[in-house]
Amino acid sequence: MNYNLLIKGISAIIPGHISDLDFSVLSKLDMISSKELLDIFVHNGIGKLDNNSVNFHSSDKIRGAIFVLENGAPIEDVSELLNWKDFENLVSQILLEKEFDVEKNLILTKPRMEIDVIGIKFGITILIDCKHWKRMNESSIREIVRKQNERAKNYVKKSESLLAVPVIITLHQEEISFINKVPIVPILQISSFLDDFFGNLDCMKIIKK
What we know:
Layout: H1 3-10, E1 16-19, H2 20-27, H3 31-43, E2 48-50, E3 53-56, H4 60-70, H5 75-79, H6 84-97, E4 101-108, E5 113-121, E6 124-131, H7 138-158, E7 163-170, E8 177-179, E9 182-186, H8 190-196, E10 207-208
Helix pairs in contact: 1-4, 2-3, 4-6
């Protein structure tokens, strides 16, 4: 199945139970193509078969988007179908799967700051800034890192956390890199990054109380 059909399927991934007919209407595909695409999604862990429908989780839309990207779709075409909430839902879901406690969209005051996603495990807090669907040059990323460091300092000062690790997650990058010891993680490598997180703490910037 070509990526143009896969892209159409992304718009039909909404939380809840979706029948073959629902998926066909939402994706604007014929029933045969629609059912084939649903089967492909489920086979690749995007949605779960439940009797005569597929049950989609809130993070499945962006899981579907990543699957489509891995199958050759242009980033620009896929990104038009997604929003900041889709991105944060995936990050939050992966943190939960890795047994982190998760909080989203925390607002700090004086000064006012918002942290996209927070993950806590073994007394260590990951503070994540999701920079979704936008290409960035190095100077822009450095400014994003600076602001995330400020959020981390403010968070540690005002919370019970003894230390926090600022992290930036983005789409337009192929490998994990570091700026001033702050990891810049491509969305395709979030899971492996979290698997190795505690073993690589000495390589990362840690904000302490």
